[in-house]
Design a protein that fits this description.
Helix 4 (about 60-105) runs antiparallel to helix 5 (about 110-120). The protein has a 5-stranded mixed sheet. Mean pLDDT is about 80; it is low at about 10-15. It is of the alpha+beta class. It has helices spanning about 5-15, 20-30, 35, 60-105, 110-120, 155-160, 175-180, 220-240, and strands at about 125-135, 150, 165-170, 190-195, 205-210.
């Protein structure tokens, strides 16, 4: 009996619809990362044998090298994420200890001493100061309390962009007004606005480090802003200021 069986005809149909070698080459040229996106195909592909000469490409070695590079990049990314997580956890622990230390204050003066003296060790920085702006028209006056500085009216907007709560980055000209005698060792700093009350002058919590990379623009800001907001509430309570 002549003619193809249904199964034979279906197989022939599939063969005629299979892509040609030229089409496969064109597709791979247009999608050079196809095997990276589908690494399972490497398990079924047969790479050419290794050759020491000629123009034969060792596809197997090439793809293994590419995959090894991708694995190494993923490992580096994972290591970076783990290091960031460890750093954030360490900073969080320091901030928590700092808040507990401030709660131990027995008076307003004691609170200022804790912030400007004790917290430098807790937060692992080289200098901490508190600043307050003079009222409009008033000249800054020397404050007898160590670690507290009075700035010219409007000075904080020169240190921190208006509308922003914090500055993280390298020290810049004028930072000696914030850190006083310690300014010479400060190479990076965190400056956070303080607003204890609408009826009190604008203030500043300043942390300085001799490490130029201790405070950088891309770092997280939430914990330092939280620390400043916590301090605001303590200042408001000790000075009996309206919220």
């Amino acid at each position: 009996m002549s003619g193809n069986s249904p199964s034979t005809g279906a197989a022939a149909g599939r063969r005629t619809s299979d892509p040609t070698a030229a089409a496969v080459r064109a597709f791979l040229r247009a999608n050079p990362d196809f095997l990276l996106k589908h690494p399972d195909l490497l398990e079924v592909l047969t790479p050419p044998p290794r050759h020491s000469g000629g123009n034969v490409t060792d596809l197997g070695g090439f793809m293994v090298g590419r995959l090894q590079g991708e694995v190494e990049r993923l490992r580096e990314r994972e290591a970076s994420l783990l290091e960031t997580a460890r750093t954030n956890q360490a900073v969080q622990g320091r901030v928590h200890r700092a808040t507990l230390s401030m709660l131990d204050a027995m008076s307003f003066e004691h609170l200022i001493h804790i912030v400007t003296r004790d917290l430098s060790d807790v937060l692992d920085v080289d200098a901490i100061t508190l600043c307050v702006e003079a009222s409009n028209g008033d000249e800054p006056k020397r404050v007898p309390t160590g670690g507290v500085f009075v700035l010219e009216a409007g000075a904080i907007d020169h240190f921190i962009e208006p509308g922003q709560s914090i500055y993280l980055g390298p020290s810049f000209p004028g930072h000696d007004a914030v850190f006083g005698p310690a300014a010479g060792i400060v190479h990076s700093m965190a400056l956070v606005r303080l607003a204890a009350s609408p009826h009190s002058p604008v203030g500043l919590l300043a942390l300085g480090s001799r490490d130029a990379k201790a405070f950088e623009a891309g770092q997280g800001k939430d914990l330092l802003i939280y620390l400043a907001r916590f301090l605001e509430r303590l200042l408001r309570a000790w000075l009996d200021l309206p919220s």
